[in-house]
């Protein structure tokens, strides 16, 4: 058994996030072969870039109000207690609502190559606000 106290939070990299995002790795590289778990805190308006997970992902919304969207789907509001399952390979994003903080636990597996997510473009303000692209 090992108790890890007062672990340092790390800032979500700008390549992968818009706005202020802080990540606490609860289960990191080297803890288990495939399982990864993080607590992720988003400030209002902050969100991930578009991305997918080779082996899928489950989110548990711990507090606040958030938004999630799969490519081609509607922007969906989520709140504390909601569970969001994203199947392998499905492009999506997740983040806080425009005027609310949001924290979620993210759970996923890495694939045989050690890849847990494949990152794409940032979510534009137009996409974030749920408007269809012009034209
Ligand atoms: Mn995800």
Write a structural description.
With 135 residues, the chain is mainly beta. The chain has a single domain, classed as Jelly Rolls (Sandwich), CATH 2.60.120.10. Helix content is 3%, strand content 44%. The chain is built from one helix and twelve strands. The chain has one helix spanning 125-128; strands at 10-11, 17-18, 21-27, 35-42, 47-48, 51-52, 57-70, 76-79, 83-86, 92-96, 102-109, 118-119. The radius of gyration is 15 Å and the shape is globular. The chain binds manganese (II) ion. Manganese (II) ion is lined by residues 51, 53, 57, 86, 92, 94. Manganese (II) ion binds at residues 51, 53, 57, 86, 92, 94.
Poorly predicted parts: none
Largest beta sheet, briefly? 8 strands, antiparallel
Rg calculated over all Cα atoms: 15 Å
CATH C-level name: Mainly Beta
**Average pLDDT rating:** 95
Number of strands: 12
The helix/strand series, from N terminus to C terminus, equals EEEEEEEEEEEEH
Count up the domains.
1
Morphology call: globular
Helix content range: under 10%
- Strand residue content: 35-45%
CATH-defined topology: Jelly Rolls
How many angstroms does the end-to-end distance come to?
57 Å
- Please identify which CATH superfamily we are dealing with: Jelly Rolls
């Amino acid at each position: 058994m090992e108790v890890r106290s007062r672990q340092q939070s790390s800032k979500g990299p700008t390549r992968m996030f818009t706005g202020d995002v802080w990540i606490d790795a609860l289960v990191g590289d080297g803890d288990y072969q495939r399982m990864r778990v993080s607590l992720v805190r988003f400030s209002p308006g902050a969100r991930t870039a578009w991305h997918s997970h080779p082996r899928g992902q489950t989110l548990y919304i711990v507090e606040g109000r958030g938004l999630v969207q799969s490519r081609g789907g509607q922007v969906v509001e989520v709140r504390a207690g909601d569970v969001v399952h994203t199947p392998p390979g499905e492009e999506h994003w997740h983040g806080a609502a425009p005027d609310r903080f949001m924290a979620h636990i993210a759970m996923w597996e890495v694939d045989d190559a050690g890849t847990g997510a494949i990152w794409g473009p940032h979510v534009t303000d137009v996409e974030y606000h749920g408007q269809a692209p012009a034209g």
